[in-house]
Amino acid sequence: MHIPDGFLSPPTWGTAAALSGGYLAAAVRRLTRQLEERQVAQVGIMTAFIFAAQMLNFPVAPGASGHFLGGALAALLFGPWQASLMMTVILVIQAFVFLDGGITALGANVLNMAVIAPWVSWGIVRAVGRRMGRSAAVFLAAWCSVVAAALACGLELSLSGAAEWRLALSAMAGWHVLIGIGEGLITMVVLTYLRRIGFASGEGGQDDGR
To answer: Which of 31, 42, 93, 190 is 20 to 30 A off residue 51, Cα-Cα?
Structure first.
């Protein structure tokens, strides 16, 4: 899902960068007033965990594999604002150190994986968590976060003329519908374990909407 350089047109990556930059500035202003010392340590530990977990691929079909995204896990532990900053740090390191995702496309990758994915997952759990059960809601939220990010990626590619819009959306959604199953299972298992040991009690965990 990491878009490389050269696939997005300047208007597309420029707009995505502006949207991501404005959002991240608001997130920083918001969170500097809220983070506690204990939570800072937990955020650092979980950011490192998500970064490492993204390196592990799992098969989704013959010749194809996916990897853990982590936006839903971060959002449901710490809330969507903090999750966005965590995912942005990961994406910046991947782009500049590991060349995973383009520099010009960084704003679009942040928008897809650090903004859309966390907010989609957090919103779904808030909306249906009590009605369908926590574990099922977490699985659905994580699955939807991956599919939503993939659809946004496909839309950006189609707007840039890299692919016809129906082909771009169907190709991105097709694989990520399967990848989202792995995302949902991993998120559900890890979140259940972390809550059991009392790892975090941030806004995502409390569902208080702050």
So the answer is: 31
